[in-house]
């Protein structure tokens, strides 16, 4: 599902809970993702009490953007969607022609979401969550797993667990679990490192938390695509100025559409890597060197390199045959500047 061609990643626009509890707004954002060219709209499915301790879950995000200092309090604010709501969102995704995804954060969420989605998602912070990994693997669908804040040994351990539990196709998404991720910490060569270490077991992609630049560009996504990320996930919003943890570092419809256009340009530039000499036939015909005589020569002259000159032309023996010309004799007189043709040689 995720092993795609160069510069053609599976693009996941992570709406998360940026709908702020509004089903209508969530549907509008799905439509925006589809218009912009995304392949999937992704949400987050959790119950605050099953996700974070009420008394002991301090924040790990930029509190100047999201002032809530308790994970439990933040998650409680946006955990109101039920099974019917997710079914409605999945149906709307089908109508818009894109995939519905949502990250389950507990076992009940896995049960709710599994019938609705083409693949399952595991968040970075749950890479070591044994019961959740086993439940996700048991679904039998492709798995996307972000690997932020994890060592390579932990990633290997999680892969082993998933495979033992029956997982098939797995995609590992390089990720830095900081909101936002400073560009200097994005460490995008982690994509290459993951491919070298785990490319025989998983498709490699990227989940991004780097904020768009002041110009609205997304260089982290561009670089991830050129490094060969086959899946790219980025938070998505309808209002980047909105207060909240996942609005300010998200991209919006215009930025997603711009990224999709950039990818199309990259694909055109990349080609397929195979020589296309048919498109260069004029250059081959007119720009390659051919064999000419450098001085007046009489018939029966045995040609040496001193008698010959390599010049660009569209007549004469191709320079690649130089060694087949040297040592042969002329059938007729030649004047300086004449091309050598095969019929001229004995």
UniProtKB/TrEMBL annotation:
<dbReference type="InterPro" id="IPR036732">
    <property type="entry name" value="AFP_Neu5c_C_sf"/>
</dbReference>
<dbReference type="InterPro" id="IPR057736">
    <property type="entry name" value="SAF_PseI/NeuA/NeuB"/>
</dbReference>
<dbReference type="GO" id="GO:0047444">
    <property type="term" value="F:N-acylneuraminate-9-phosphate synthase activity"/>
</dbReference>
<protein>
    <submittedName>
        <fullName>N-acetylneuraminate synthase</fullName>
    </submittedName>
</protein>
<dbReference type="InterPro" id="IPR013785">
    <property type="entry name" value="Aldolase_TIM"/>
</dbReference>
<dbReference type="InterPro" id="IPR051690">
    <property type="entry name" value="PseI-like"/>
</dbReference>
<dbReference type="InterPro" id="IPR006190">
    <property type="entry name" value="SAF_AFP_Neu5Ac"/>
</dbReference>
<dbReference type="Pfam" id="PF08666">
    <property type="entry name" value="SAF"/>
</dbReference>
<dbReference type="GO" id="GO:0016051">
    <property type="term" value="P:carbohydrate biosynthetic process"/>
</dbReference>
<feature type="domain" description="AFP-like">
    <location>
        <begin position="290"/>
        <end position="346"/>
    </location>
</feature>
<dbReference type="Pfam" id="PF03102">
    <property type="entry name" value="NeuB"/>
</dbReference>
<dbReference type="InterPro" id="IPR013974">
    <property type="entry name" value="SAF"/>
</dbReference>
<dbReference type="InterPro" id="IPR013132">
    <property type="entry name" value="PseI/NeuA/B-like_N"/>
</dbReference>
